[in-house]
Amino acid sequence: MTPDNDRSARLLVGLLAGAGAAHVVAPQLFDDMVPEFLPGKQRTWTHASGVAELLLAAAVAVPQTRKPGGLAAAGYFAAILPAHLKMAHDWRGKPTALRAGAYARIPLQIPLVLWAVKVARNVAR
């Protein structure tokens, strides 16, 4: 693995670990993003997604599990798109800066998915 590949993996680990910790430590910030069609309580989904992000961070951090971890992270980034769509819809009436931030999260999922796939593919290089 080249230093650039290793750095990219470490940055992805940091993003996933930071997001996971935020979901667990400050779940109220994420509860309203949980789509209504999901069964159960919003807080349960918020905590579950935080734990999933922490587990993904751990998988990407370990070279032996980086490839499946990176691919799982890519799938996770795609799977949480409905939460970002819900946030953008719910924030239609917010001030422009907040609304723009909510809208920006939607296309941001594409480079996150591609980044995670790249980290997974670069394991053997």
Automatic annotation (TrEMBL):
Tree of life domain: Bacteria
PANTHER family: DOXX FAMILY MEMBRANE PROTEIN, MEMBRANE PROTEIN-RELATED
Protein name per its UniProtKB record: Putative membrane protein
